[in-house]
Amino acid sequence: MIISTLAGLMILMPGMGGGIFARKLPNAGAMITYVLIAHVVFAIAQYLLARLVA
To answer: Which of 12, 17, 19, 33 could be stapled to 24 by a disulfide with Cβ–Cβ 3.0 to 4.6 Å?
Structure first.
């Protein structure tokens, strides 16, 4: 989860014009928070699905 979060902020954001860690965006803090929350929610959903299937 940590690697995918950092990859999004260090590779994808600059590729979309937002700069490393979304520094070029006017709401950089909100964007970083959104990325972190989205990854945590996705990880929890994957865990719960794995528990349900197993």
So the answer is: 19
In angstroms, the CA 54 to CA 5 distance is: 27
SS3 category, 47: helix
The residues of the chain scoring below 70 in pLDDT are none
pTM for the full model? 0.78
The whole-number pLDDT of residue 3 equals 87
Q: Does residue 13 contact residue 44 with C-beta atoms inside 8 Å?
A: no
HEC letters along 4-45: HHHHHHHHHHHHCCCCHHHCCCCCHHHHHHHHHHHHHHHHHH
Of 35, 38, 39, 17, nearest in space to 26 by CA: 17
| Dist CA 23 CA 31 (whole Å) | 10
